[in-house]
Amino acid sequence: MATELISSEIAILCLTALSIGAIHTILGPDHYLPFVAMSKAGGWTARKTLGVTVACGLGHVAGSVAIGAAGLLLGIAVMQLETFEGFRGELAGWLLIGFGLAYAAWGVIRGLGDIPPSQFHPHAHPHAHGGAGIAAPAAAMATPAAVWAPWTAFLVFVFGPCEPLIPLLMYPAAKSSYGAVAAVAAAFALATVVTMVAAVMAMRYGLSFVQMPALGRFGHALAGLAILMCGVLVKIGL
What we know:
Layout: H1 2-26, H2 33-42, H3 46-74, H4 78-112, H5 137-159, H6 165-174, H7 178-207, H8 219-235
Helix pairs in contact: 1-6, 1-7, 2-5, 2-7, 2-8, 3-5, 3-6, 3-7, 4-5, 4-8, 6-7
């Protein structure tokens, strides 16, 4: 009887984790708008967009899971962890703002450059000029953003906390077993990543029908502004 009761409690916690994970994600535009903006501006393929979104989503949850697990093993009070998670939230907001500002500034400089946007590629390819075999400047300039933008997004998301995971799910599950904690964390991670992917891919598909040739040159600048606004929303608690 006791075993059945524990199993029922774990099942309820897992269902709660699925619900909270999905709601927490969809109510936070910082979970999907940055990826939509970067994908549109950088001309990412669906595969790259999916890969970056999943990686950032897993990193986002993993950070809080690691902190929650450490807290349980070390016997740290949940209130102390909530304070630390609040600090991480503040830091994540500032990181988003900094990332957005840097990306927007780079986008403006790129947009005002003399090289047409059509000559920028997501990966550098050498082009021969006059038989000299020198790489084209456009390809060289395109490489940095293609590399640092996804990695920067990943680092920002690792620092970003999943506020409800530790106090509402991991600590209550720990009263049953560490296996229950793992099950709850997995359910929350699944809901978070699936919701992120669904939102990003749906918005990306919708934007594929929007053509803005006049703003194409400043696509990266607009993406940076979108990320900046997400950081501002995080800072003001929306």
